[in-house]
Amino acid sequence: MKFLLGRIKGQMWFLPICLMVLNCCKIVNWGKENFRQTSQYSQKFIHSAKTFIRSIKVYDQFSTAATFDVMLLSDSMRQLYVDYFKKSHGLSDDQEEIKRQHQKNENKYFISFYVVATQKERLYTTNKALFSGEYQIASDDILGQKDSEWSVRMIVGGREYYPESIQSVELPIEYRQLFGFAFNQFSTVYLVRFSTKDKKNEPILEFNKKSSIILRFSSSLYQTDISWKNILYNIE
User: Fold this and answer.
1) Strands 187-195 and 110-118
2) Phi, psi of 173 (to 5 degrees)
């Protein structure tokens, strides 16, 4: 009898673990029933988009002078966007064809980039807490204005080209997902567009031919390059 009681006492530690496991299973099942999770399909699009995204931080000693995350809007990248849009919103065959053709037409006339850039930080001496006055983002555009802190130009084959237009834009939700954490409330998004032809009316990038593209950001104090090597921009 003593031996049996000893065996029972020796196994008593196992009972609380069993009860805890059973309770955990109940909690997990309750969570699944009441907080149903959606199936995520965006990861494959995010992975594919990485080919076209480049990121760089410009440092002044230990402080960050600027951050640029840039997407090259090649034909392949634009078609990936249409695939993502169709998956999330749904498109009829006619709507899809129109959207795809519109994206390709854009690239007939422009070499385009989405630039997600940090705005210049401004410190106010009001002794208030974060987001209530002391630490704010300046409203000045760091690109695209005559007195902007930074300028941008494109280099292909050793030749420099200047943008046709730089616009501050609202980034479509699909592109926000593709940029990930680079897109946030502290950044501004610009659509930077260069002409597809040079001053001699010759194409800067040829169809179905791989090219290396450099986007150079410059200020009065700094200069940094972002590059895409051996990449197809236009595809016939």
Assistant:
1) antiparallel
2) -60, -35
